[in-house]
Amino acid sequence: MCRTYKILILVALLCFSLTYLSFCNEIPSLFPKNGMKDFKKSAPVVVNGDKVEYLQDKQRVRGTGNVKVTYGDVVLTCEEILVHTDTKLGICKGNVKIVQGKNILTGSSIEYNFANKTGKIVDGRVEAYPLYGRADNVQKISEDEVVLNKGYVTTCDLDKPHYRIEAKEVKVYLDDKVIAKHVVFYLGDLPVMYIPYYIQPIKDTKTKITVIPGYTDEWGYYALGAYRYYLSEQLKGYIRLDYRHKRGVGTGIDYNYSLKELGEGSARFYYAQENNDLALDREGHVDDRWRFQYKHDIDFSENTKGTIEINKLSDKDVVKDFFFRELDDGWSPENYFSIISRHQNYSLEVLGEKRLNDFFTVTERLPETKMRIHSQRLWDTSFYYNSDMSFANFVKRYAVSDNKADEEAVRLDTYNKLSYAAKLFNFLFATPYIATRQTFYSENRYKRRNVLREIYEYGVDFSAKFFRVFGNNIPILDINGFRHIITPTIGFRHRHQPTVSPDNLFHFDGIDSLDYENQFDLGLENKLQTKRRRGDKWESVDVARLVIRTGYPFRFNKFKDFGFQGEGDFSEITCDLEIKPYDWLFAKTNIIFDIVDYNIDNSIKSANTDLVCEFEDKFSVGLGHSYENTDNNSASQFTFETKYKINDDWSIRVYERFDSHASIWEEQEYTVTKDLHCWVADFTCNIKESDIALWVIFRIKAFPEVPIGFKRTYRRPTPGSSSWR
């Protein structure tokens, strides 16, 4: 618990300091400055109506019946009005309506000053889309600020809204935000929540409160709740309160901040104390489980960016047990800082990485510096030069459970390449090159010090492009002529045997495992293009594209110059096919054929196919198939997903994932969505192996996005997820 308290204190101090800096800078902006446009005092207020009287001696204008007044960008309508022409004050009665841009104020009676756009409204309503407000007394105290006294705001446009946020005083900054203190959240007439301070940006699309109830075999019944606080655009985040029947209560806070020129970042802390009965079932389990995350990005200049990220965990399984969806996103507990500077001719990177969780294996960089010189033309010749240089202090620390000794070495690596660009026979492009790599190690795997490894490479790349135009038109496919483009490529590369075998070196990254290599690379691209009208212009679009690639590794004969030992063979053939006959239909497939161990039953090493159809927001369907074949063990998986909007109130979504080899359903998910006027409700049932999960999500239609960082639904392989558009 001592470590937990220290981290809690650290997070609290961090949040307080950043909140103080950001809030102090932001408070003045909560109340708009006096930047209203001044109207000329001499500009008249023109009153139109069924009957208009001008009382010149009293400097008044009286209008009755279908009254309409236009003054600048303000349009006022009512049944009766009395305007004081000297002060521009209008006293309006009967169905009063004021339109200012996209914002509307209505009431039974209004005292309105046309000069400074202020007024008092009785039984007033405010429409600042997507928000609606109502109060017995409404004051428009400036051009852009409206105050509702003892009123409420909502996104429901009904006279009796399904929900509302009620407070003693609600401030609405038109086209900007809503601010209120001591807020009570009502569902119908039932008060369900108290919020001490509330800010809702009008242009923001993220919901304020999210509650996701559900059930899984692992968690039991659960409810995941998040409240999104918004003190300013520079200071916002989430407060989390979760309940899991089998794991207990979990709490957390997400903190997103912006320090303007000093960058922006986020901090996240989550704490859970599991039930004691579960603690007895887990070997080595601790009751207190938590995670701390911190990330900050800063732009030092237009070309230079810095990043720092920290991930500290109570144990190696805390993410799997509480945030297992993140593992599907490829999350890893990295702790590093980096500075990257990219320029036209070169780029520079400094990377430092440290292990903070001793239950993971991590290669520390203390630090690593890289410099890359991009391909540069040498004077006015056809020669080009590029290079990579790096210097690093590596320490590979194994997980405590592995019981292995650390591996440590300093490495200095340089790579230099010289190439020549030539055009032969007016159609063939050739690029021969030579390269050399020298790498210094302070120590190798066998404790030998000051080791120097040398590697030499050379090769050549050839490419050509041929095309032919066909005038055929196919109206049903929107084909307006064809252009067929063929691009064959062939390359050869040779890497000499390194002076130090990779078996003698620590393997910190791919540079340390480089070995002898000879290979031909062959490729052929076929592309079909047509022209289609986009507005007033014709654009070239790809209808189909097929790319075939393969490699031919081999070994030279040691006793004959450029003689072959007969050990060469094609490694594998890769085929990529993309078809998009319409904007709403596309298909993609990737197939890898194994040539080395070829037989008619196991020639395909892997195959992935996607077919997706989308018809606007009415209907979509996706089909996918994934096949893997390694060491005579194969896996085949089909995926299917469809969405259909039945009508304006109901829509459905079905997702299926089937293992054809095991003949089992790996995952099934069914969602029914109901439009509840101002809300949208998703009722979902997920069946994954033996785990059944049920959850309900309510979203406000005006703010439909699920909060950032609260993605607690499955990320899964879906049809079309890797397809091009």
Q: Which terms would index this structure?
A:
26-stranded antiparallel beta barrel; disordered N terminus; twelve-stranded antiparallel β-sheet; 62% strand; mainly beta; lipopolysaccharide transport protein A fold; 725 residues; globular
Describe the structure.
By secondary structure, the chain is mainly β. Among the domains are: 45-201, lipopolysaccharide transport protein A fold; 578-725. Helices cover 6% and strands 62% of the residues. The protein contains four helices and 40 strands. It has a 26-stranded antiparallel barrel. Strands 1, 2, 3, 4, 5, 6, 7, 8, 9, 10, 11 and 12 form a twelve-stranded antiparallel sheet that branches. A hairpin with a 3-residue loop joins strand 25 and strand 26 (428-443). The longest helix is centred in the first third of the chain and has 29 residues, at 2-30. The two termini are 51 Å apart.
